[in-house]
Amino acid sequence: MAWILQIAVMISSLLIFVTVLLAFVRLILGPSLPDRVVALDMMTVAIVSVCGLAAVQSGDSAFLDVAVVLALVGFLATVALARFADKQILRGKNQEDKRG
Questions:
Q1: Crossing angle (nearest 10°) for helices 62-99 and 33-58
Q2: pLDDT tens digits, residue range 26-72?
Q3: CA torsion angle 32 34 39 40 (round to 10)
Q4: FRET label pair with 77: which of 7, 37, 41, 94, CA 20 to 30 Å apart?
Q5: Cβ atoms of residues 26 and 15 within 8 Å
Q6: CB-side exposure of 22: number of CA atoms within 13 Å?
Q7: How far is Cα 18 from Cα 26, in angstroms, rounded to an integer?
Q8: Residue 96 has pLDDT above 80, yes or no
């Protein structure tokens, strides 16, 4: 592999690691459920990009198959969590209406 490609992969790996770390902090701190859903989706995208970097570095296209499957699972998880969050918000509004 060319030296410039090695440097680009190393820099990209470092930036992706920082992205996952910051998203994990947002996942832990919240403060709301939508914040956590977006952080989890961001972590999924970053991990998909790790699979892409692994494919570039190793020259093996099997990592791209893993990236596609992981992206699909991440998308479905995000949709499911968004629906859950929407139901929680609607449930909270209905309880407020009953109180007031």
A1: 180
A2: 999 988 888 888 899 999 999 999 999 999 999 888 999 999 999 99
A3: 110
A4: 94
A5: no
A6: 8
A7: 12
A8: no
